[in-house]
Specification:
Phage tail protein beta-alpha-beta fold, 5 helices, 14-stranded mixed beta sheet, 22 strands, single chain
């Protein structure tokens, strides 16, 4: 489908049976004006709101949101997400009942499922495999009824990990994934939880290119640009402590050519992080140097608006705005989709700039 050509877009909403994740009933109680926010900077990644003209009866089932696009006599359908829903308030007016349904990705299920007894993960456990079982279940861990897709990893814990009662399963999953060099848990439109290897944003090639010097420019002319380097650190302290041993490592930016260095700033800007598991003082020092390097960049971002285009969060996007003399390539970290016929998307793109 040529998404840059004119199309007629409508929406449909389905009740999705929770245990089978099969669509079972179309819901006709929603009105125009809802939105879905995809945000890689949040734990559950996707949320939104759906205004209704009568309260939908879905019990503990899920809701799926689809868009249908008519173009040149052909219909193309897109699934935008699978959600759990809440209707915290509504307005009664004689026979009508209006309100807005709050919707959350199925990562909310993992977030809400705190452990009910202390959990000990033994040394040498494969981190990603255990993260998967935190959702799919194993002896002593109840399955959450969600599907999981995971990249392979051989990363093993270097010591026992212990979690207290009440710790969110999503917190445990994300810490295990971070240990293995993975992204935080994600979710696709069907509701499958994804555990994917982390890719450095600087290594991403642009998947989407938006230009104003081509016919059919896809973005609005008003673009918000931000470049913030005020709080970039020049000192990083890493601390690892457990029942067996403890290490502290310190890395400093003393590069005379860097505008973020201790000399250039004339002051220390310190960041400290606790590391749950690392094999040696040497490894911790290397970690501190790497984290200082990662943080020694300013965050540059732009916010743009464009009609709907089908791409995933976390992809590389290049913006070429010749009329403004501006160009930037970065990573899509947030997108708010308006559930209206225009399907306008408000998009945040971010990159890190070395100085």
């Amino acid at each position: 489908m040529d998404w840059r050509s004119e199309r007629i877009s409508t929406f449909r909403y389905m009740r999705t049976e929770r245990t089978t994740r099969q669509d079972v009933e179309e819901l006709d109680c929603f009105e125009e004006g809802g939105s879905i926010e995809y945000n890689d900077l949040t734990a559950i990644k996707v949320s939104g709101s759906l205004p209704y003209i009568s309260l939908p009866e879905i019990g503990n089932d899920y809701i799926r949101v689809y868009s249908r696009h008519l173009q040149k006599g052909k219909v193309h359908e897109v699934l935008h997400g699978t959600f759990i829903a809440s209707a915290p308030s509504s307005v009664l007016n004689r026979k009508s009942r209006k309100g807005s349904l709050d919707i959350y990705s199925l990562l909310q299920v993992v977030q809400d499922a705190s452990i009910s007894e202390p959990l000990s993960i033994p040394k040498s456990t494969k981190a990603v495999d255990f993260a998967v079982t935190m959702i799919t279940g194993r002896a002593g861990i109840k399955a959450l009824g969600l599907a999981v897709q995971s990249d392979a990893s051989e990363a093993e814990l270097g010591s026992d990990w212990v979690y207290d009662i009440g710790t969110s399963r999503l917190e445990i999953v994300n810490e295990l994934l971070a240990f293995a060099g993975f992204r935080n848990a994600d979710v696709d439109a069907s509701g499958t939880i994804r555990m994917l290897t982390y890719t450095n944003p600087e290594d991403l090639s642009p998947t989407v290119v938006l230009r104003d010097d081509e016919p059919g420019c896809m973005f609005a002319p008003s673009v918000k640009h931000e470049l913030d380097f005020f709080s970039v650190p020049n000192v990083f302290i890493a601390v690892m402590s457990n029942a067996e041993e403890s290490f502290v490592a310190k890395a400093e930016n003393t590069d005379a050519t860097s505008i973020y260095s201790k000399q250039a700033r004339g002051r220390d800007i310190v960041v400290k992080e606790d590391v749950s598991d690392i094999e040696s003082q040497t490894a911790l020092q290397a970690f501190a140097q790497r984290r200082l390097s990662e943080l020694s960049s300013s965050v540059e971002s732009v916010e743009i608006a464009h009609p709907y285009l089908p791409y995933d969060m976390g992809v590389g996007m290049q913006l070429v705005y010749t009329e403004a003399g501006f160009e930037m390539a970065g990573v899509v970290v947030k997108r708010v989709l308006s559930l209206t016929p225009a399907m306008t998307c408000s998009v945040s793109i971010r990159r890190f700039v070395r100085r």
